[in-house]
From TrEMBL:
Keyword Nucleotide-binding: yes
Gene3D superfamilies (UniProt xref): 3.30.420.40, Actin, Chain A, domain 4, Substrate Binding Domain Of DNAk, Chain A, domain 1
Name of the protein this chain belongs to: Heat shock protein 70
Pfam family, one: HSP70
TM stretches of this protein: none
InterPro entries the record matches: ATPase_NBD, Heat_shock_70_CS, HSP70_peptide-bd_sf, Hsp_70_fam
Record keywords, A-Z: ATP-binding, Nucleotide-binding
Similarity annotation: Belongs to the heat shock protein 70 family.
Native source organism of the sequence: Blastocystis hominis
MF terms (GO), sorted A to Z: ATP binding; ATP-dependent protein folding chaperone
Length: 507
């Protein structure tokens, strides 16, 4: 059976896929007729379903998971996971400081990678059915600001979904969007900004495009800022406004925790629908089903929505300016701002960007929902490999709860750097240290451990006892072209290799 190359945008709210066949890029459509696949999964005693079929049950059944991408590769005790506990549709439990979705109906727990794998399985099956071919090489996109843990946990999901990992590459979402925009443009050198505001993440990338070559100048963003945040803001407004208007709580205190969560999920879906309607309307009525017979509703106007989300969108503009400063560029240096992600359909987003850069630079020039997946597929077909940068620095912890930078952020990749560590006490038998990612911008910059993400805490022993400072460990850190982290540690005195491995999410 013939093969087709495939590009997949694995999204927080919706996913999208393209394949290339007989000279055409085809966007995969699904049984509901849409070209977007809702990133929802339902677990029940009768089996597992995903996509639109699962989303239909969200808010009606306590077994539908959403927002898995927001938790993938994160620790349970992180601020981000704690802030998302009420917005996943099911309880989130702690297993080894990793979040798992608990399904009471089957008394089973599923990791974010498990959930993402179910989404990818269905997309994979649909591509094969629609194309009549098997899947060949695959590019799957991820946020540019995903750290090593999130990238590795995503790889786990891809593997669980049954893809041949030897034929899978990861590509940063803004880079894929830039490829989609850049192909077919004139060949003169230009600098573009990709403003990628999706369902769960916000990325900004600045690229130089010249003669079909794509060079990333800087990545920045926020892994926990997206359309889901806006849905949650609308929900809090709805709860307050409803009580003020009708004197009743939409989520009564007397409900069980399970009932509260289910009610919240249903209301969240209504808020998402209202937000989407306000991309083309001036107002939207929010009518909780339980009150429809009474005719109860509250009206969300575009002006109210803009007031609610103004500060949230200002965060994206601040990140835009930070990215420009990192690259040593100004707004005037940008030839185009490419708007990517469903959240860029918000009218206030478009208004703020037009004010910041000028309307002529910010007019939507690609389909914001499809361009990432299409660009990923184009990268395969035309053999385009953007020259990437690190989003995070790499460093090692010191004895005073600080981290010394070895490879700074915004460094060209692939890259490799070595540092010599030594014992800090006499006759040490074991060395304990932590490999961290952070935001340091130059080598040997020292940052608080609390501001960094620990990728791996490791110990090694088996070296001679000597006075402090007389045993040396040559430690090499490297990023490959997909920002995968590899570490080797060798004792200089004995030649013994103490550690040599990629850092996986299970490390």
């Amino acid at each position: 059976m013939p093969e087709v190359p495939v590009g997949i945008d694995l999204g927080t709210t919706n996913s999208c896929a393209f394949y290339y066949k007989e000279g055409e890029f085809e966007c995969v459509d699904y049984p509901n007729g849409r070209k977007l696949f809702p990133s929802f999964v339902r677990y029940s005693k009768s089996g597992i379903i995903s996509g639109s079929s699962a989303k239909l049950y969200f808010g009606r059944a306590r077994n539908v998971v959403r927002n898995a991408k927001r938790l993938i590769g994160r620790y349970y005790n992180s601020t981000e996971v704690q802030g998302a506990l009420n917005y996943c549709g099911v309880p989130v439990v702690n297993k080894g400081n990793k979040p798992y979705f608990h399904i009471a109906e089957t008394d089973a727990d599923y990791s974010p990678s498990d959930v993402s794998a179910e989404i990818l399985k269905e997309i994979k099956k649909t591509i094969e059915n629609r194309s009549g071919c098997t899947i060949g090489d695959v590019v799957i996109t991820i946020p540019a600001n995903f750290d090593n843990n999130q990238r590795q946990a995503t790889r786990d999901a891809i593997s669980k979904a049954g893809f041949n990992m030897n034929r899978v590459k990861l590509l940063n979402e803004p880079s894929a969007a830039a490829i989609c925009y850049g192909l077919g443009q004139d060949t003169t050198s230009k600098k573009i900004m990709v403003y990628d505001f999706g369902g769960g993440t916000f990325d900004v990338s600045i690229l130089d495009i010249s003669n079909g070559n794509y060079k990333v100048l800087v990545h920045d963003g926020d892994n926990f800022l997206g359309g889901s945040n806006i849905d949650e803001i609308i929900l809090e407004w709805l709860l307050k406004t409803w009580e003020e208007t009708y004197g009743e709580e939409l989520i009564p205190e007397g409900l069980t925790p399970e009932a509260k969560s289910q009610t919240r999920s249903g209301l969240l879906s209504l808020c998402e629908q209202a937000k989407e309607q306000l991309s083309s309307m001036d107002e939207s009525d929010i009518e909780p089903p339980i009150f429809m017979e009474e005719g109860y509703a509250v009206t969300l106007t575009i002006d109210t929505l803009n007031d609610l989300i103004d500060k949230e969108l200002d965060k994206t503009i601040a990140i835009v300016e930070r990215a420009l400063n990192k690259a040593g560029l100004s707004r005037d240096d940008m030839s185009r701002v490419v708007l990517v992600g469903g959240s860029t359909r918000l009218l206030l987003v478009q208004k703020k960007l037009a004010k910041h850069f000028g309307k002529e630079k910010t007019t939507q020039s690609v389909n914001p929902d499809e361009c990432v997946a299409k660009g990923a597929c184009m990268a395969l077909v035309y053999d385009i490999l953007p020259k990437e940068k690190t989003a995070f620095s790499l460093g090692t912890s010191l004895i005073n709860n600080e981290v010394e930078c070895i490879i700074p952020s915004n460094h060209d990749i692939p890259c490799s750097e070595s540092v010599v560590l030594t014992t800090a006490v006499d006759n040490a038998e074991t060395i304990y240290t932590q490999l961290c990612q952070g935001r340091s911008t130059y080598v040997e910059e020292v940052a608080p451990l609390s501001s960094c993400n620990v990728l791996k805490a490791y110990r090694y022993s088996g070296f001679p006892k000597r006075p402090k400072g007389e045993i040396h460990f040559n430690t090499t850190f490297s990023y490959d072209g997909e920002s995968k982290v590899h570490v080797t540690v060798k004792c200089e005195e004995t030649g013994q290799e103490l550690f040599n491995s990629d850092l996986t999410w299970d490390s």
